[in-house]
Specification:
The chain is an alpha+beta fold. It has one domain (about 50-205). It is built from 5 helices and 10 strands. It has helices at about 5-20, 50-60, 85-90, 150-155, 200-205; strands spanning about 60, 65, 80, 90-95, 105-110, 110-120, 160-165, 170-180, 185-190, 195-200. The protein is globular, with a radius of gyration of 32 Å. It comes from Stenotrophomonas nitritireducens. Keywords: Signal.
Length: about 210
Amino acid sequence: MSAPLLRGSALACIALVLVACKPTDPGVAPATPAPPAASAPASDAAPRAAAGDAAAQLAAVGELRIGAPFGKAPGDAAFKSAGMREVMEGDCEYYDRGTLPEGMSMMVIADRIARFDVDGEGDPGVRVDARPAAAPPIPFGLWVGMDAAEAKKRLPAGVVVSPHAYVSPDGDYLTWTDKRANLALRLETLGGVVTSIYWGQPDAVELIEGCA
């Protein structure tokens, strides 16, 4: 190999080394990953529910959906009827057990699920400061026996307060309606305490004595 060719190869190698060893531009700082954002501390009090979340909470309990047909599927035989149709000679019936949580019942009108009910045990109006571990799941984290003012804070805006049909002025109805989803929820109160909760079709929620 000739001397000029050797010098050319050597110069090329030196140039590559110089490029590889060239320091970074001091004016450009290397990117550093941003620290993870600190999560907001959790609040003990449940926030007011958003109206957009309500339909999902009010529409169903497990596989049981408001407006769905009931009574002819094989699994429907596991539910226990209250015998209201025989007593009232109408098209309304109450059921419990089956796949319903303990302490919850279901109203069926004209063979379609119309609403879900949760009533307290024992004397109505007994205050329960925290949700009992065995309490059935209720929309918006509510429970029977809770403070009525706290319950109202958990509901979406637009709750309508009306006098109770039997215990006014000591009791009220707190009713929230999702007109777009055609669903509603009502709380009955006595002495500032929630005594029962039910939700489903608005016309079914308006029934103040259930099937009666």
